[in-house]
Each structure stands twice: as C-alpha cells, then as structure tokens.
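G.,

No rush on this.
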Amino acid sequence: MTPLPQRREQPSPSPLVGLRHLVAGALRPAPGPGRIVLAVAMGLLTGTLFAAAVLAMIVAMATGLSGGLGSVPWPWAALANAALIAQFPLLHSLFLTRRGRAVLARLVPGPHGATLATTTYALIASVQLLLLFVLWTPSGIVWWRAEGVALWLLLAAYGSAWLLLLKASLDAGAEVQSGALGWLSLLQGIRPVFPDMPEHGLFRVIRQPIYVAFALTLWTVPVWTPDQLALALSYTAYCLLAPRLKERRFRALYGERFRAYQRRVPYALPLPRPRAADV
C-alpha cells in the first residue's frame, strides 16, 4: 500500500453537502487494491459495531439497564459496573488529547493510520459502549416502570431525544461522528477534511447540542432502577464538563471566530444572552 497523496479539498459550508461529496467520491475509488480493501474492511467493521452499539444503548437504557449479561457477584458488581461507566469517558477523552491523537494515528499499522484515525476512534468508542451495555451486571432492583399513558409519553420523549441526538450529529458532521470520514477518504486516496466549525442547525441555539441531547436520552427512560440512575448521574456530569475541553481546542483552532460564537450562543440551555454580550 502506498501513502496518501498530499491533496486536500476545501471544506463544504454544509456538513450534509460535504458528506454527499465524500460518499460520491468514494464511488470512484482511486487505484490501489490494498488500500481499497483496508478502507472497505474498516468501514464495514466500524459501521457494524457503531450500529450495534447504538442499538444496545437504546434497548439497555429503555429497560433501565435491567437486562445486562454481566454476572459479577454483588457487591463486586458495583465496582465492575463503575469501571464500565468510567472506561468510556476516560478513554474517549484521552484520545482527544495531543498525545492520544498521536497514539490513535498509529493503531492501524502501515502508512494509513493517520487517515483512518477518525474511523479508529469511532471503532474503539463503539466497542467501549458495547462493553458497557452488554456486560453490565444488573442489580435486579426496579424502582418504577411506566405504564399506560405515562409509558407512551416517556417513549415519545425518549424517541424524541434520540432524534434530537441524530439531528445534532448531522449538524456537527455525521461523517466524523460515525467514523466514516477516515475510511471514505482513504477509499478516494485523499486526506480527511473535517467539517467546518458548526454554527448552523441546533448549533445556532446552543453550543453543545450533542451532549445535551445525549443527556436527555438518559433521563427520559420509562424504567428507573439504581443502575439507570448511576449511569444518568455519571454521564450527565460528563456531558456538562467534557465540552469544556472541546471548547478549549476550538478556541485554539478557530481563535476569535469561536470566541465570538461563544459570546453569541449559550452553552447548554437556550436562554437569552445579555445584550452586552451580543456580537
């Protein structure tokens, strides 16, 4: 396999337009059978695990984490479950540091590790989520299970939260969130081009719609157990704090443009900004 040519494309003003161009270009892959096989294999593996992880999350949280396959005896199960909760945000955030990104680029041997970094990142995240929701050891305690009208209302809220998360992910650049950016770029023999700083769609309303939408999925479930409460509290804290690190990277990358966006758009709640802060 040969290294990628030193070619870049200009980012599209719309993530959806950029994604369409990326997919259209992948239909005409650049010559190089070894590179093509690697790209398609990584795409299939990551896409399959990503879909499985999302499905596992939806089902597991809808049942209040009452059906995990873990069988660690209590009270040791509490430590095992805590480790499953902690491993996702810790490793997920570690790979976003400068040193973590360097490690991520070397996880796929050969000359294409850096190109596949976003795909590898999504692949690892999918495995982490599968471990969390499949290997969870349930407490066996159910505090409350919605019935009748309450069940349908909560299912509607839960489904709406997931649709909101999907919308926010599309606004941010679905190719990055799903890991498709890496393998689709490799298929074409080009360097990955990240979507521009998101300012449209839900990002016009708040700066962190992905984290807020995910937090909403944690609290709109129709079954409440100690397991679900532990997950909801832990990951809501993560959703409030982790974007601070993301915004630090955005300030370094976009400078005054991002600072103006911060002054113009609220962090997590769509509250009116003071007039003095308006740009």
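When you get to it, here's the other one too:
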Amino acid sequence: MTPRKHVNLLLAVFTGIAITICTSDTLTAQKKESDTSKSSATAKKSVTKKSKGRVPPHYGKLNLTKKQRDKIYEIKAGYKSQLDNLKKQLAELTQKQKSECEGVLTASQKSTLDKILADVASKRSKKTAKK
C-alpha cells in the first residue's frame, strides 16, 4: 500500500472511532412506562425525581426496577471520566493526524481544501437551518 492509502485508512479508522465514541451516549432509547389511570400518572409526576442519566440502548424496554436503573447509573458514572479522557485523546490524535496530512499539501492545495471545506460547512449549515 502506498503512504497515501495508509493515511486515508488511518483517517477512516479514527473518524469511525470518533463517531462511535461521540454518539454512543446520545443514541440511547428509553421506554416510557404506561400508566393505567390518569390519577396515578399525576401522582407519579409530582413524586418523580430528576433522572440521573440514561440507560444503554434498548434497556428501557426491559422493565428495569429502580434498583437496577440506579446500579446502571452508578456503573456508567464510574466509567465516565475514563471515557471522557479517551474522547479527548481521540480528538487530539485526530487533530494531529489532520495537521500532518495538511502538512503534505502544497500552498495551492491547502487553499483549495480551505475553499472546499468552507463550501461543505456552508451547505451543512443551510441544511440544518431548514430542519
């Protein structure tokens, strides 16, 4: 494989890892408990405390007990600092890799790349503004 292919491969791998890590917490789904009567729903709303977090994807469908939820929140809290450190390391490595890749480019290529990235950002912001 040529060095350029190695760089592209590494870029793809790091990007995939970054996306996976960054979205792993945001893709959780929780099932809302259905109440049989309106009075019990109103009573629960007044007594319910603020959520401590989210359970992993699809765990909300398992009818977890409060004890199980609390234990899951505790486990997730224990790993939070480690995961945050890894996310930071990944972001730093990704930025270092990007800088090294840009270091290979000529001045005109860098200029063209800057224009391309500006166009992409502009299109992305327009797309998100429509939603």
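The mean pLDDT is 79. The helical segments are 3-24, 38-47, 66-103, 107-130.

Enjoy the weekend,
O.
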